[in-house]
Design brief:
single chain, 453 residues, alpha/beta, 6-stranded parallel beta sheet, globular
């Protein structure tokens, strides 16, 4: 008997594609056949980036339109989210019908990004088994589940807008969060807020249709959140190193020359700086960060995407690199999991996306938190207030992190051994959860058994 075909549907941004691709690789390793749905735009990005790091023959990647025809629209979150919600459901439903009409090789289960509740609705309509995956922290999902109570208590209005700025906790065991930093309220775009908030309200209903609700986390990282949502099962950390393989699903080619450079640096000396796939720094802030790195007089590895430095001239960057010389290494994109596992890395200046957070925690890394939007502020609260393995930055009256503040926080973090001791304890707990006797692995194993029934 052939194993069932699983249709995997991620939300089409880098931070959602990578963990679902990683989960797909794990499922394929257990003999399950995977059809992975990318948008046409992202499909081309991954193809361009994956030379020498191929996804492999065990996963069949297909593409559908997301309704966005020009690459510049990707940087307009309101337009992007609206187009995705308007176009993708119909395209995915057409794909399901096409696959199921092609013969006996029908879809046995739809594994969808939890933010795509419509995929679960389609699966129920067609009588297909369904599972949902949350690529963010469990706490973020619990916050979404709390929306009706937040409205009832007058903390937000019916459109998700905070009635006033305040610090709240969903429960005493959860991180505190500023209402201005709710995931849907800090996107910098009213249209995006409307779309994302509406999607989360709808998903609170559609998620009840799922047979499984999975999360890239562990019980040890978020006990309070999992107590509030016992239906949510952690299967993390989802890391390429767990498979003894390279990471998959990147949108940019990885510059592996940085690994040889890291080999030349002293142990626990390097400041690693990376802001994920979406964050953009305006010119003044970009330059302050550069000058802060220079001021630290420590080796650093800085990931600078071609689109990250808004308004910054190439001349500034060249002069900066000339001054720091071989002490600094700048790349367009790094093999991040390998970088964070490298013994020369001392700390991670991060936007605090959940993938980066999980990867750093799994390697016992210290954090300097630079959140930009969405769930990153909640993740910073975990890092700084709950786990206590990192520090945040103070901003000036213009909202900027200045070079002196940067240098001071680097020195404060690296001079206090208690941060590292806690980070290593957390690393051991998290890694153990993914071992065969661990809770995450056991949850994953039960999921695989269910898929094969």
């Amino acid at each position: 008997m052939r194993s069932p075909r699983i249709l995997v549907v991620p939300y089409p941004v880098q931070g959602h594609v990578i963990p679902l691709m990683e989960l797909s690789k794990c499922l394929a390793k257990h003999g399950l056949r995977i059809t992975f749905v990318n948008t046409e735009y992202n499909h081309q990005l991954i193809k361009n980036a994956s030379e020498g790091n191929n996804i492999g023959d065990d996963i069949h990647v297909v593409s559908v339109s997301d309704g966005i025809h020009f690459s510049e629209d990707k940087n307009k979150p309101g337009k992007s989210s609206e187009a995705i919600l308007r176009v993708m459901p119909g395209k995915v439903e057409e794909l399901i019908e096409e696959i199921n009409a092609s013969g006996s090789d029908k879809i046995g289960c739809i594994l969808a990004d939890q933010s795509f509740g419509w995929a679960l609705e389609i699966a129920e309509k067609k009588g297909i088994r369904r599972a949902a995956f949350c690529p963010a922290a469990a706490a973020q999902l619990v916050l979404g589940f709390s929306i009706p109570k937040l409205i009832e208590d007058g903390i937000i209005d019916d459109h998700g807008t905070p009635t006033k700025q305040q610090i709240i906790q969903i429960s005493p065991t959860m991180p505190a969060v500023n209402t201005a930093n709710f995931v849907w309220a800090c996107l910098g775009n009213k249209e995006a807020q409307k779309n994302i908030f509406g999607l989360m309200v709808r998903n609170n209903k559609s998620v009840k249709l799922t047979d499984w609700l999975l999360c890239n986390s562990t019980y040890d990282l978020e006990p309070g959140a999992f107590n509030l949502a016992p239906q949510l099962l952690p299967i993390g950390p989802l890391l390429a190193s767990n498979r003894q393989a390279d990471s998959v699903g990147n949108f940019w080619p990885e510059d592996t020359t940085c690994l040889a450079w890291l080999d030349q640096q002293p142990p626990e000396s390097v400041i690693y700086v990376a802001f994920g796939s979406l964050a953009v720094l305006h010119q003044t802030q970009f330059q302050e960060l550069a000058l802060g790195l220079e001021l630290c007089n420590r080796p650093f590895l800085w990931v600078i995407r071609s689109d990250i430095r808004k308004g910054t001239t190439d001349a500034f960057l060249k002069e900066f690199q000339d001054r720091v010389g071989t002490r600094g290494k700048v790349v367009d994109w790094a093999p991040q999991q390998k970088v964070l596992a490298h013994p020369s890395v001392a700390c991670f200046v991060s936007h605090c996306g959940w993938n980066s957070t999980i990867e750093g925690v799994s390697n016992g890394i210290l954090f300097l938190c630079w959140p930009c939007f969405a769930d990153q502020f909640l993740n910073q609260s975990y890092i700084c207030d709950i786990w206590k393995i990192g520090l945040g930055f103070e901003r000036d009256e213009n909202g900027r992190i200045m070079r002196g503040e940067f240098k001071n926080k680097v020195e404060q973090l690296l001079s206090n051994g208690e941060f590292k001791a806690r980070a290593l304890e957390l690393k051991e707990m998290v890694i153990n959860s993914a071992k065969e006797t661990g809770s995450s692995y056991q949850n994953f194993k039960k999921f695989v058994e269910w898929l094969k029934e």
